[in-house]
Amino acid sequence: SQKIEQNSEALNIQEGKTATLTCNYTNYSPAYLQWYRQDPGRGPVFLLLIRENEKEKRKERLKVTFDTTLKQSLFHITASQPADSATYLCAPFPSYNTDKLIFGTGTRLQVFP
Amino acid sequence: DTGVSQDPRHKITKRGQNVTFRCDPISEHNRLYWYRQTLGQGPEFLTYFQNEAQLEKSRLLSNRFSAERPKGSFSTLEIQRTEQGDSAMYLCASTSPKVRNEQFFGPGTRLTVL
Fold first, then answer.
1. pLDDT tens, residue by residue, A30-77
2. SS (H, E, C) A46-88
3. For residue B38, what pLDDT band results from cuts at 50, 70 and 90?
4. Among candidates A109, A107, A108, A105, which has minimal Cα distance to A3?
5. CB neighbour class for A45 (10 Å; exposed up to 12, middle 13-18, buried from 19)
6. Contacts with B, A 17-36, CB within 8 Å
7. Fewer CB in a 10 Å sphere around the end CB: N or C, chain A?
8. Chain A, window 52-111: residues with a beta carbon less than 8 angstroms from a chain B beta carbon
9. Chain A partners within 8 Å of B110 (Cβ)
């Protein structure tokens, strides 16, 4: 079955450092992959989408990579700030035949001042 | 605020009761999705609509769950004979016909079954 793995343990980093979150998937080949941010008690918010033919995508302080050989995506936040503290969800898109998303469990990021 | 609203935000009910949640998507969005999220997990897909047509339903969804979108605008999710295992956050999302990849989520309805 399709499986998505994200670090279940929280990632704690100091303000100003680069945070790197990992998303690994198995048993399917997504056409693209999305990253969402979720704050406690709120719905996820879309951040970035990267397609299978793109190696890297950037948006302000965010960078996403997509390695279809390794079946892995990395999500980087540079110059991290306490306001970046949240849970980050990976969602590799399962196929062109459906619009549903399959989410990973998410990784909680805590940025300390 | 993404523009997707859900009502109620919180619902406490006793086991065996029926509950209904409502989702109002962004007005021009034609696709609407329902997800369920439990603590420490990512959202789990339940069902989705294109306009009023229900296009896909999770095999994990029991017969006690039903969703409607009668006029292609707002949607309702009903859970009959609630069980304690139904306690979760129920999230609604919508997408624009022009940008189908980006889902806009509502704040969710937190259900607690006692």
1. 888 999 999 999 999 999 999 988 989 999 999 999 998 999 999 999
2. EEEEEECCCCEEEECCEEEEEECCCCEEEEEECCCCHHHCEEE
3. very high
4. A105
5. middle
6. 32, 34
7. N
8. 89, 91, 93, 98-106
9. 41
